[in-house]
Design a protein that fits this description.
- By secondary structure, the protein is mainly alpha-helical.
- It is built from four helices and no strands.
- Helix 1 packs antiparallel against helix 2 and helix 3 packs antiparallel against helix 4.
């Protein structure tokens, strides 16, 4: 926590090395910490393209795209 930009760099490198859905989920978490929900949503979608049955990516995507009921 608190080092989202550094984490994002590491997950980007892991993605280049073939980490796939796992790296995308890490990227999503880093984007959330940075307050960048659209990028987090795209990272979850990328994880699902890489691994369609990934339940964590699916749950995270649902959470990120469900409108909040808290005002």
């Amino acid at each position: 926590m608190g080092e989202a930009a550094a984490a994002l760099e590491k997950f980007d490198r892991a993605l280049q090395l073939g980490a796939g859905a796992t790296a995308q989920l890490g990227r999503a978490a880093a984007y959330i910490e940075m307050g960048d929900e659209p990028s987090a949503i795209e990272a979850c979608r990328a994880a699902l393209r890489n691994e369609p049955g990934n339940t964590i990516a699916g749950q995270n995507l649902k959470w990120l795209t469900t409108p909040s009921t808290v005002d």
